[in-house]
Design goal:
The complex is a heterodimer of chains A (about 240) and B (about 190).
Chain A (H helix, E strand, L loop, with lengths): L1 H5 L9 H8 L13 H4 L11 H9 L3 H6 L11 H5 L6 H11 L7 H12 L10 H18 L17 E3 L4 H5 L5 H9 L4 E2 L10 H5 L2 H17 L4 E4 L2
Parallel strand pairs in A: 1-2, 1-3
Chain B lengths: L1 H10 L7 E4 L1 H9 L17 E4 L5 H5 L1 H15 L29 H18 L3 E4 L2 H13 L5 E3 L1 H8 L13 H4 L11
Parallel strand pairs in B: 2-3, 3-4
Helix pairs in contact in B: 2-4, 4-7, 5-6
Classes of the chains: A mainly alpha (about 240), B mainly alpha (about 190).
């Protein structure tokens, strides 16, 4: 009787944890000491009645359905502080990324999805969909205005597509689109320091929401466009401004 | 965003002929090389206190404490060493502000503000009235935290403070400065709109 009671038919169904182990080989998922350092130092602890340790235990216990149903993976910012303090270096943020990715794309948060989609559809990779011509116009318009108003900077440049420049500088869309005067202090600093730099007419946008959407294909598309632009201009350094 | 490019190039094996860097390490370099000469005299009597948000993507996830230290070197040249007050913990051990990871775009506003409470309390505890935030997500989130929790501290990009200390910050480039800095060291005040 007792033997019959513990007999199982076939193999246990492969759990989400097994899939994660394959996706995140460096995740060290079985090494968790349950010490709770991750949770005690995580600002997302308590949101949605969840915390990083609980999240990991639920995965280990095979509570796949509950984990996949939770919105908590969208409230973890994947900031990696839990990995930084973990004695076993368990990579919880990579699990979060893969859990985000396992949700059907059309059910992921609309705001992030739209920002990703707009960026992928735009030559400039801008999440605000800024067209190439609009960017060129705004940059040159602001530049002219400041050259005239502040004669010490009459020679200042804001080059676009300058081949061979040392730095390929990216720019968050927020400045050219909503607060163009905010681009100016940086231009002046670069001018005074005699920095040889350029924007690209394409792929200048600094933001990348496809990473947050956990959409690998779109993330890759954006990275390839940005790398291609910097290489096309033969720049030595891709310089992030954020 | 620094991490998306660096991690993306590696993850997707994208062949490329450039190095990926963040401007945080260059501000200090250009100052050391004498190419930029910021002056902190404007803050000698004002003694306005600044704290600095270490963006997770730039510090912990990409370049570590070294870039955070280099960034502080540049900040101190601009505001005076005694006017930088640190959040605790900081650098690679810093708390995320809650603006990253898509949180600002995800629609979970109430949870995002709850997440940010710890950051708000850190800033208040530092006693600073200005927080330097280099990343746009940090900037937007901390700005909202300041209003939501009533701390009323200001959030600024570093380029604003560096340009102020170089004496080249015009009147229309001061969107994020408070009234206490609106009239300080103004470059071409006659161009005010």
């Amino acid at each position: 009787m007792a033997e019959a009671a513990i007999l199982r038919e076939g193999k246990a169904k492969k759990s989400f944890l097994d899939e994660l182990r394959e996706m995140v080989p460096a995740g060290n998922l079985s090494l968790c000491l349950t010490c709770g350092l991750c949770s005690s130092g995580c600002p997302a602890t308590g949101l949605e009645d969840m915390d990083p340790r609980k999240f990991l235990r639920m995965l280990v216990l095979g509570m796949d359905e509950e984990v996949l149903k939770s919105d908590w993976p969208w409230m973890c910012t994947m900031c990696q502080r839990c990995v930084y303090v973990c004695p076993m270096k368990i990579d919880i943020p990579s699990m979060i990324f893969n859990i985000r990715a396992s949700r059907p794309r059309d059910q992921r948060p609309k705001g992030i999805r739209n920002s990703c989609d707009v960026a992928v559809a735009s030559d400039t990779c801008s999440a605000m969909g800024t067209p190439v011509e609009d960017f060129k116009f705004v940059v040159n318009d602001v530049l002219e205005e400041y050259r005239a108003a502040q004669p010490e900077f009459a020679d200042m440049e804001a080059p676009i597509d300058k081949a061979g420049a040392e730095f390929f500088i990216n720019q968050n869309s927020r400045e050219p689109m909503t607060e163009p005067d905010e681009m100016v202090p940086l231009w002046k600093i670069l001018h005074l320091a005699k920095v040889d730099w350029t924007y690209g007419s394409k792929a200048w946008a600094a933001e990348n929401y496809c990473l947050f959407l956990a959409d690998n294909e779109s993330w890759e598309t954006l990275v390839r466009k940005k790398a291609a632009m910097a290489d096309e201009l033969d720049c030595k350094t891709y310089l992030n401004t954020e | 965003m620094t991490f998306a490019v660096r991690a993306g190039l590696k993850k997707f094996n994208v062949a490329h002929n450039f190095e990926t860097k963040n401007i945080y390490e260059y501000y200090g370099k250009w100052i050391r090389e004498g190419r930029l000469k910021p002056n902190s005299d404007w803050n000698k009597d004002l003694k306005i206190k600044f704290t600095v948000q270490d963006p997770c993507q730039i510090v912990r996830k990409s370049f570590g404490d070294a870039i955070a230290d280099e960034f502080r070197y540049a900040i101190k040249q601009c505001i005076g060493e005694e006017n930088l007050v640190e959040m605790i913990p900081n650098k690679s051990n810093n708390y995320c502000c809650g603006g990253g990871g898509g949180f600002l775009q995800s629609g979970f506003r109430e949870q995002r503000l709850a997440y940010g409470k710890i950051k708000d309390e850190q800033i208040k505890a530092s006693g600073a009235t200005y927080c330097i935030a280099g990343c746009h997500n940090c900037h937007a989130q901390i700005h909202e935290l300041s209003h939501h929790y009533g701390g009323n501290y200001h959030v600024v990009h570093f380029w604003t403070i560096l340009a102020l200390s170089l004496g080249i910050l015009g009147p229309n480039e001061r969107t994020y400065l408070g009234d206490d800095l609106r009239e300080v060291n103004v470059f071409h005040p006659e161009t005010a709109l």
